[in-house]
Design brief:
alpha/beta, binds iron/sulfur cluster
């Protein structure tokens, strides 16, 4: 008997549209279907803080909207800013932004929730959050080494939506929808296909689940997309339940940006569902300290109170967050919200990303500027995801200076040199030889 049946749960997925597909590559589809408004009984659970800047913004641009609507994540999804004209109603678009948005076709469309737009500068096109969400002409410039699928995910697609690269864990792409679309997205090639419908394709999920049932070496499943939290509660509950019913899967993770860009998604009902499927961890995508609002304090508190270990992921980007003076308050602000800074990623070389990418040295400089200078927990792992499917490679500043006989010479965070007795070791010997030769 499956665990689901033992729990008395219906073993069928909550059905909506099912569109069978023949090809193995997942066709990630976009939400366009209007979801129903919240039932009155749910409305009490929608109460959420609204920070003063956001309140002023929505009174200006959505004057007839009630606080209950504003705090309903489904309203935020439906009201997303999706077109050039909607952008121009709110933002003073630069000529470059206006042209770039006009030119855009295909996946990774404009998509910004009203809440997230309220955090952006409406006049200054150089403001960091705005730069990461409103396209510019730089996006159409392809430079050497860029690719639509730089991480070779399509190559490692073992079943629809399942990227099986590492021995004991998989990435499960569950949906093509996000509540906001980041201009630097690694999956720019597949997310937000316009004209799609809310179609998670049960058939694809079933094929993915069949693969996982067979592959008992998989003990860790990372649900990503798109953003898995754009799925409705019933679908998410069903999917997590199916995964949890596989005894070899010890551990589930959700990769999401919704607690940051649509914090209203973290409803009490969602939290109750997530709690049923422990051990469940969450990796939350943060970019900049200006995201650390009262709303995000609430969304992360609800998740942490539900016993969900929270980690952050941040993409390092030129002129956005490539400065210790920006990264430190972000990392410290995350710790205050019980989110452990986890990964700082070098921006992947997707097509048209040169304007976001900075040097690897810059990432190391930021880690060096954090390590020792603030709480150890506030220092994320810096990693490059190797193009072509090599996986994540961790990089760290080098604190080994050389060797003097049995002593290893180490540099501390202030640049002081210290000896550590290390008899029998050879670490650092090469550096000493090199230094002597110079
Ligand atoms: S939320 Fe994640 S998957 Fe969606 S566009 Fe941003 S980076 Fe890509």
């Amino acid at each position: 008997m499956s665990l689901q049946i033992a729990r008395g749960r219906e073993a069928k997925p909550p059905l909506r549209t099912i569109r069978p597909r023949q090809d193995a590559r997942p066709q990630l589809k976009e939400v366009t279907e209007a979801t129903p408004a919240a039932a009155p009984a749910e409305k009490a659970a929608l109460r959420f803080p609204v920070n003063p800047k956001t309140r002023a913004f929505y009174k200006t641009f959505w004057p007839g909207t009630s606080a209950v609507e504003w705090n309903d994540w489904r309203w935020q999804m439906r009201a997303r800013i999706r077109t050039r004209d909607e952008l121009a109603r709110i933002f003073s678009l630069s000529a470059d932004e206006f042209d770039a948005v006009t030119r855009h076709q295909g996946s990774l469309p404009v998509g910004i929730t009203p809440y997230y737009a309220s955090l952006m500068d409406l006049k200054d096109a150089r403001e960091p959050l705005r730069r990461t969400h409103i396209m510019t002409g730089d996006e159409y410039v392809t430079t050497a080494g860029e690719d639509d699928d730089p991480l070779g995910e399509d190559h490692d697609m073992a079943a629809p939506g399942i990227v099986h690269r590492y021995p004991d864990r998989v990435l499960f792409l569950t949906t093509g929808t996000c509540s906001t679309y980041c201009r630097y997205c690694t999956r720019a090639r597949v997310v937000g296909n316009p004209g799609g419908e809310y179609n998670f394709s049960t058939r694809q999920w079933e094929q993915a689940l069949a693969y996982l049932e067979k592959h008992t070496e998989v003990r860790d499943v990372l649900l990503s997309g798109g953003d898995p939290l754009t799925l409705g509660d019933d679908k998410l509950d069903w999917l997590l339940g199916r995964l949890r019913a596989m005894k070899h899967i010890e551990f589930l993770r959700i990769g999401t940006k919704m607690p940051v860009v649509t914090p209203q998604r973290i409803t009490k009902n969602l939290v109750a569902i997530l709690k049923k499927h422990h051990p469940l961890w969450m990796s939350i995508h943060f970019t900049h300290p200006s995201e650390l609002t009262d709303e995000v304090t609430e969304s992360t508190a609800r998740l942490a109170d539900a016993g969900i270990p929270l980690g952050s992921q941040t993409v390092l980007m030129k002129g956005i967050n490539d400065d210790v003076a920006i990264m430190k308050p972000l990392m410290q602000g995350l710790l205050k919200r019980r989110v452990r800074p986890y990964y700082l990623y070098q921006c992947d070389p997707i097509r048209g990303s040169a304007h976001f990418r900075t040097t690897v040295e810059k990432g190391l400089e930021i880690v060096e500027g954090l390590r020792g200078h603030t709480t150890g927990y506030a220092t994320p792992i810096f990693a490059v995801d190797a193009p072509g499917g090599g996986g994540k490679i961790q990089l760290a500043p080098d604190f080994i200076v050389g060797r003097d006989g049995n002593d290893l010479l180490l540099k501390n965070f202030e640049g002081g040199i210290y000896r550590y007795p290390d008899p029998g070791g050879t670490l650092g010997a090469n550096k000493s030889k090199l230094a002597a030769a110079e």
